[in-house]
Design goal:
Blueprint: H1 3-8, E1 16-17, E2 21-22, E3 26-30, H2 35-41, H3 47-50, H4 63-71, E4 75-76, E5 82-89, E6 99-110, E7 115-122, H5 131-146, E8 151-157, H6 161-169, E9 173-184, E10 187-197, H7 198-204
Parallel strand pairs: 7-8
Antiparallel strand pairs: 1-4, 2-3, 3-5, 5-6, 6-7, 8-10, 9-10
Length: 206
């Protein structure tokens, strides 16, 4: 064990470097500058997508500047560090062209208490096909099996029924409803918190 891991990681197995992750139908890869055009012209500019996002939607930076900040999230070493992956739908015709359908994120919230937060956003055109479940399940595997997280949680706009349903599918428990916690563009929003413990993750997949 390196001195960096011993000193900075607490209960988590850090540092952790970003890398591509393959699932049955998807490829999760680090964001690149080539994603700027795609994201600005696709789901990240759709009001029906961004209205429920907790942190990046209401950042009024230009899209390119916002993406540059997200590209820099490529390593987990201490509290506040995060990874963001573009989610690509793998081609089925033998070509190498993969379509980006969303992105998922993983953030270290407490190294001492082994707490990790996950997040996601997907294009509405692919809803209902299990892609979000597949992608976030891969993130949970990283969080629990590789980082050694004790608890993984997600914070949602309480009105986001689709994400709440995804949390339930993943086996997460609704732990809290924080009434009117966030003021977004002059409107108060409730926040729902869903969590999953390491033993629950292990039991569900044993």
């Amino acid at each position: 064990m390196t001195s960096e891991t011993t000193t900075g990681a607490g209960l988590l197995a850090l540092p952790f470097e970003t890398r591509p992750i393959a699932t049955e139908r998807l490829r999760l890869r680090p964001l690149t500058r080539a994603d700027i055009e795609h994201r600005s012209e696709n789901y990240q500019r759709r009001t029906d997508v961004v209205r429920y996002l907790r942190w990046e939607v209401h950042d009024h930076d230009e899209p390119a500047r916002n993406l540059e900040k997200r590209i820099a999230l490529d390593r987990l070493a201490t509290d506040g560090d995060g990874l963001i992956f573009a989610v690509e739908l793998c081609a089925t015709d033998g070509s190498t062209e993969h379509r980006v359908i969303g992105d998922v994120s993983l953030f270290v919230k407490s190294t001492h208490d082994a707490q990790v937060e996950v997040g996601w956003v997907f294009h509405p055109a692919v809803h209902g096909r299990g892609y979000a479940t597949e992608a976030v399940t891969a993130l949970l595997g990283i969080a629990f099996r590789e980082l050694g997280a004790h608890r993984v949680y997600a914070e949602l706009d309480a009105a986001n029924e689709a994400s709440a349903r995804l949390c339930e599918i993943l086996g997460m428990t609704r732990e809290a409803l924080l009434r009117e916690r966030d003021n977004i563009d002059g409107e108060w929003h409730d926040v729902a918190i869903f969590g999953l413990l390491d033993r629950e993750f292990a039991t569900a997949r044993s």
